[in-house]
Design brief:
alpha/beta, Rossmann fold, 2 domains, 4-stranded parallel β-sheet, 47% helix, oxidoreductase activity, (Fe-S)-binding protein, Cys_rich_dom
């Protein structure tokens, strides 16, 4: 299978190691991975702000870059959900429909498509798992705690195979961190307060790292941690799964 690596713009600009870890991890799992050099933003920031009608250029470029692949894999649940629900190209709607069905968040692809249950690695630290809203409620990567249903978590399932890791049990494991894309800009005070509440839960459990499958949420939490001079660090799940 041919895999197209979709790297969100904020990862490309600020956290390139996450993209590299994703690429290396997929290669280790036997995938033929390609990175289209002309890919740009998927258009999510405009859509979040109510300007989805201005994303036609982003959509057309995305289709042009990823139409040839069997699967598209991305280390970001929110960007994947945006493409799944909003990608359209009037000049090539058939390709758009194919892409919407073949784009996957990284841990979703590993568990659901590759059928990998555990990954070998080594990360001897206590870690708190942040479950981002788009991945949980949109992509169904884990069970919502308000439902009377059997719990599951595709990201945590993969982490359990890593040697030395201790996954903290949080009090409110699927509470929003307050990032919300452009919400953190238009409602800064509320966003920061939500982020501080989320971090407090991790602090009470004595974690060394906060991980997750959306670097955007981790970036928001990282900013608060730095301003608070906290020793807690953030790390994308791809970097843990790619550890040796």
């Amino acid at each position: 299978m041919k895999i197209g690596l979709f790297i969100p713009c904020y990862v490309d600009q600020f956290y390139p190691n996450v993209g590299i870890a994703t690429y290396e991890l997929l290669q280790k799992l036997g995938c033929d991975v390609r990175f289209p050099m002309k890919q740009t933003c998927c258009g999510q920031p405009m859509a979040n702000s109510g300007y989805e009608h201005l994303t036609q250029g982003c959509d057309a470029n995305f289709v042009a870059n990823f139409a040839e692949f069997d699967y598209i894999v991305c280390p970001s649940g929110s960007c994947v959900l945006h493409v799944k629900e909003h990608l359209h190209d009037e000049k090539n709607e058939a390709a758009s429909a194919k892409i919407r069905k073949s784009v996957f968040e990284l841990t979703e692809f590993i568990t659901d498509i590759l059928k990998v249950a555990t990954i070998e690695g080594n990360f001897p630290h206590k870690v708190g798992m942040h479950i981002s809203c788009h991945g949980q409620r949109g992509l169904k990567l884990s069970q919502m705690s308000e439902l009377n249903a059997a719990p599951f978590s595709k990201p945590e399932q993969l982490l359990h195979g890593i040697k030395g890791i201790e996954i903290a049990s949080l009090n409110r494991k699927d509470e929003c961190c307050g990032f919300g894309g452009t919400f953190c800009v238009t409602e800064e005070a509320i966003s920061v307060k939500m982020g501080k509440d989320r971090i407090k839960d991790h602090e009470e459990q004595g974690v060394e790292y906060i991980t997750g499958f959306d670097m955007s949420c981790l970036m928001h939490l990282e900013g608060i941690l730095r301003r608070e001079k906290s020793p807690i660090k953030t790390i994308h799940i791809a970097e843990i799964l790619n550890s040796k």
